[in-house]
Amino acid sequence: MHEITQQVREFVIANFLFGQDDGKLQDHQSLLESGIIDSTGVLELVTFLEERFSIGVADRELLPENLDSIQSVARFVSRKLEATSRAAAV
Fold first, then answer.
1. CATH number for the domain including 27?
2. Which residues of 56-81 are buried (b: 16+ CB within 10 A; e: fewer)?
3. What's the structural domain count of the chain?
4. pLDDT tens for residues 26-83?
């Protein structure tokens, strides 16, 4: 999960913080409440996740508990990847 966290962090810094990270961005920090991303940014993040990790994100999964922090995004992607690998093993 560390690798997923790092990739999401790099995406957020590059695309929403314009490559500037002063070390204040915390993995548990709300991206929405802190103004780092807005609703359009959530869609950009979802597109990145779908392309980078080859997962599908359903409309019903567009929830803050899945996408509001780097930490929650990494957990969400990990769950999706795990479910995909379980389904492929069956």
1. 1.10.1200.10
2. ebeeeeeeeebbbbbbbbbbbbeebe
3. 1
4. 999 999 999 999 999 999 999 999 999 999 999 999 999 999 999 999 999 999 999 8
**Residue in 83, 87, 13 with CA at minimum distance from that of residue 48:** 13
Listed residue (32, 28, 33) closest to 43, CA to CA:
32
Angle between helices 39-53 and 2-16 (to 10 degrees): 140
DSSP state of 59: G
Can you give the residue range of the structural domain that contains 61?
2-89
pTM: 0.92
